[in-house]
Amino acid sequence: MGLKKILFTLFITLNIIYSFAQNSTNNSDFWNNVRFGGGIGLGFTNNGFNGSISPSVIYQFNDQLAVGTSLNFNYAKFSDDKFLAYGGSVLSLFNPIPKLQLSTEFEQLRINRTLYTQTVTIEDNYWLPAFFVGIGYSTPNVTFGLRYDLLYNHKKSIYGNALMPFVRVYF
C-alpha cells in the first residue's frame, strides 16, 4: 500500500510539472526553471548516527516558490541496532525573503530494521511516513538549516530524534 502511495505522489508531481511544460509558450523556459540537486542529512545522538542522501528535482515557479520530488536513502545505527530505509518524498520550498527558506516535505520510507536484545534478534520491515517542516539560511544554490518531523515516532523512526540538520543543494 505504501509503495502505491509513493508512486502515485511521484506521478502527480511529475504530471503537474509536465502540465506547466505543455502550457509554456516556449518549452526551453520550462527547463530553465527545473533545478536538480538534493540534500544530505546527518543526525547524532548519545548512542547513534543517522545519515541520508536525497537526490531531487524541483520546479522553480518564481524567486519565492519551488515544488518537487525526491528519492531518499537512509542508514542509521544506534548501539547494535541497524536501520536501512528507502522511499520518496514531495517537497515545497518557500523563500519569503532571499536568505530565509521555509520548507515542508512529506516522506514515505520503507524501513528494514534489525534490533538486538539480550535474548533475541528482531527483524522488522514496515512503511513509515514523516512530515517535515524546516527553516534554513539560503544562498542561490545552497541552503543550511534544521527540519522537524511532526509525525516523529521514537519507537519506529529511523531518525535519532525529531529535529535534524540538513543541507540542500540545487543547480
From TrEMBL:
Residues 1-21 form the signal peptide. Keywords: Signal. This is Alpha-ketoglutarate decarboxylase. It comes from Maribacter arcticus.
